[in-house]
């Protein structure tokens, strides 16, 4: 009788572990990218799919896309580009992996040129030419390009938070200055 009870206990534990593994928890990541046939065609042809919601961007990217909690007054978002870097290359070029990056665009109403872009990925990335800096308590990078040739100054921050890599980029114009960009960066939270 004892052997039968032990056997039933082992079977019960195995079944429980299988059932628990199959049930997603409350804050789980999506199970990889899922695209509609139209989105698959766009990705194959252009390497990017443009969508209007964070839910669609997260579904296509295969990870939860973060948005800033702070968006300066007058700016509107709602435009996401999901890029697949390293896909659709010639057969003789074989990348180590395909990197998915989501870029969200926030534009000052009535001013197409005044915008900031938040890029995010789950693959390590850096800002070319950036210098080490602390970004919102995280090790990161700061890149600055002074005004020249009728081009206003540009600024970018890059940082890692819990396995997510972010870059925030903007032309410093209108209400966008370094302090405002830092406030935007610090409002981006990983769930």
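Sequence proposed for the structure above (191 residues):
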């Amino acid at each position: 009788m004892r052997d039968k009870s032990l056997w039933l206990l082992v079977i019960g534990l195995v079944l429980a572990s299988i059932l628990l593994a199959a049930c997603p928890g409350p804050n789980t990541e999506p199970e990889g990218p899922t695209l509609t046939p139209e989105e698959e065609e766009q990705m194959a042809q252009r390497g990017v799919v443009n969508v209007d919601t964070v839910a669609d961007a997260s579904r296509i990217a295969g990870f939860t896309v973060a948005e800033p909690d702070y968006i300066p007054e007058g700016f509107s978002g709602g435009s996401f580009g999901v890029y697949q870097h390293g896909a659709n290359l010639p057969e003789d070029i074989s990348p180590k992996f395909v990197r998915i990056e989501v870029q969200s665009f926030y534009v000052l109403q009535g001013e197409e040129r005044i915008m900031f872009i938040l890029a995010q990925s789950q693959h390590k990335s850096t800002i070319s030419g950036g210098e080490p800096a602390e970004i919102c308590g995280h090790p990161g990078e700061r890149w600055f390009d002074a005004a020249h040739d009728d081009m206003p100054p540009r600024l970018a921050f890059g940082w890692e938070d819990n396995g997510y890599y972010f870059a925030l980029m903007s032309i410093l114009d209108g209400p966008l200055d370094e302090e405002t960009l830092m406030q935007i960066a610090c409002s981006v939270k990983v769930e």
